[in-house]
Amino acid sequence: MSAALSASVDVVVAGVAVADIIGRPIDIRHPPAKGGLQLLDSITLTTGGNVSNSGIDLAKMGFRVAAITRIGNDTLGEFIRSQYKRYGLHTDGVVVDPRLQTAATFVAVDEQGERTFLHTRGCLEKFRKQDILRSLPIIQRARVFAFGYLGLLHEIEEDLPAICAAVKKQSHAQVLVDTGGNPRRAPALMRRLLPFVDFFIPSHDEAAVLTGEQKPENIIRQLRRWGAAGVVGVKLGADGCYIASPEGAAYVQAVRVRRVVDATGAGDAFVAGFLAATLKGFEPIHAARVANAVAASCVTAVGASTAIRPFTHYI
């Protein structure tokens, strides 16, 4: 029996794994002339997607992590697996697709650290319910099951309520669902999904699309109407976040940094920090402060996980 199946883990992270090629600085408003050349400060090959970003962040903070995703049988897939091995992620739940390429993103980062993405979904187009449910023995040994992204894995979305219901019924893991890509307004889906979700903290732009609301308080009210009973919130980027639990709600200020180098993976770093603090027993508002600090670390270096420190650095 493998290490992933014989030992407990803290978090199982399921969903999107990609290879990121990050170039900076790139002003996409002024590309080089046709056939021309533009010099960049750096081009970096790194991992991306919630499985890699949140998973590696949590591992670097000292937590045991298992991955559930789909990669191709190619050089980029080998690179992702090498990074999971480097940081100690359990990979029994990683499916290698023999036909389609590993999902990949070219990330153009400007002088202010803002990103523009060019993405190929590759084998993630084939990521399905069974890719997750076959790994229930791993999830049953975890404290948290974290899925992403609602909005980027459209083929699995209709099955997501059933997946989360199975996790809740057949394990003791708490469930987090994160958003990304292009979520759609789907009230019926949210009513089926949110009763099985313990943590739901989308970005403001994604939350606004999902709910049709702009103010964080109104977003939370709509999520509650759809059945969200646990911790809900809204990531607000440079303005921090708004977090609501059954015990209360509050705006939590962002942690400032001297210079934003690359904001790639900041939302996933927030998720990793929030889960890390929650696993350590912090209440939601305090966990959000830690999450903001981890997200602030993320943006100070190129790559989603480069600047992440051990958990004790953030408390």
CATH homologous superfamily grouping = Ribokinase
Helical fraction equals 25-40%
Large-scale geometry: globular
- The radius of gyration is 18 Å
- The ordered H/E elements are HEEEHEHEEEHHEHHEHEHHEEEHH
The overall number of domains is 1
> How are strands sequenced across the largest beta sheet?
5-4-1-8-9-10-11-12-13
What is the fold-level CATH name, i.e. the topology?
Answer: UDP-N-acetylmuramoyl-L-alanine:D-glutamate ligase
Low-confidence stretches: none
- The CATH architecture would be 3-Layer(aba) Sandwich
CATH class: Alpha Beta
Number of DSSP helical runs: 12
In short:
The chain is α/β, with parallel strands linked by helices and 315 residues long. It has twelve helices and 13 strands.
Labels describing this entry:
UDP-N-acetylmuramoyl-L-alanine:D-glutamate ligase; 315 residues; single chain; 12 helices; globular; 34% helix; 9-stranded mixed sheet; alpha/beta; 4-stranded mixed sheet
Structural account:
The structure is a single chain. This protein has 315 residues and is α/β, with parallel strands linked by helices. It has one domain: Ribokinase (UDP-N-acetylmuramoyl-L-alanine:D-glutamate ligase, 3-Layer(aba) Sandwich). Helices cover 34% and strands 24% of the residues. It is built from twelve helices and 13 strands. The chain has a nine-stranded mixed β-sheet with strand order 5-4-1-8-9-10-11-12-13, sandwiched between helices. Strands 3-2-6-7 form a four-stranded mixed β-sheet. β9, α8 and β10 form a beta-alpha-beta unit. α2 packs parallel to α3, α9 crosses α10 and α11 runs antiparallel to α12. It is globular and about 55 Å long. The model has no long low-confidence stretch (mean pLDDT 95).
